[in-house]
């Protein structure tokens, strides 16, 4: 069954994470997210309170990131970040696991780091970013299993800031490495509808992207084409240009 634009929007966490974004640029992205009714925005920690206030009553959730983008802050710092974000109204947390410790095989440390954030989050969802561009297949499997054992709701491919993003191979491997109660989020390089749909077929159920407008405009055009019985409509050159080459 084809996914319509509304179903696709309901799987998107619109990323507003670039460090150089001004308040005006953040506000423009928040307005776009509300207009397209994406599932959530994922904002910088310092923008949580503003995003929550701006999007109040819109139906768009607000999430944020912890230990971002390197994962090397202490567990205590990640827990403090989590508690502050939740106090300010965030409802989902995307944390970067300790990549160096995962690569060192210190899986008890990795698991404890995640579990501390999961504990601080209570009933709120925690997504664990592996940064798959830095990992071997075995390390991806180990990171996924550590996240599942620690109680995470999602495993996530990437921050989008490490020179590599979601790949079909890694999404399929992550889906195979966790049980059905853990979902997979693909992020990094998800800049068009066909990529999103292909990764969804492999098991990803949430997508982090800064190209939400381009993706959803394409989805809406394809919906209209199906209603008219015409061939699939592709995004215009002007819409594609708005992706601005962002990797997230």
Provide a descriptive summary of the structure in words.
The structure is a single chain. The longest helix has 17 residues, at 212-228. By secondary structure, the chain is of the alpha/beta class. It contains eleven helices and eight strands.
Radius of gyration: 17 Å
User: Got a strand count?
Assistant: 8
Q: How much is the average pLDDT?
A: 93
Counting copies of identical and different chains, the oligomeric state is single chain
Helix content: 40-55%
Query: Quick one: overall form?
Result: globular
User: What's the number of helices?
Assistant: 11
* Series of H and E elements: HEHEHEHEHHEHEHEHEHH
Measured by DSSP, the beta-strand proportion falls in 15-25%
Structural class: alpha/beta
What is the spatial order of strands in the main beta sheet?
1-2-3-4-5-6-7-8
Low-confidence stretches: 233-247
Separation of termini? 27 Å
Task: Please give the largest β-sheet.
Answer: 8 strands, parallel, barrel
Short description:
The chain has 248 residues and is an alpha/beta fold.
Describe this protein with a few key phrases.
248 residues; alpha/beta; eight-stranded parallel beta barrel; 46% helix; disordered C terminus
SSE diagram, text form:
Layout (H helix, E strand, L loop, with lengths): L4 H5 L2 E5 L6 H14 L3 E4 L4 H7 L6 E6 L8 H13 L4 E5 L2 H5 L3 H15 L3 E5 L7 H13 L4 E3 L11 H10 L5 E5 L5 H9 L2 E6 L2 H17 L8 H5 L7
Parallel strand pairs: 1-2, 1-8, 2-3, 3-4, 4-5, 5-6, 6-7, 7-8
Helix pairs in contact: 4-6, 6-7, 7-8
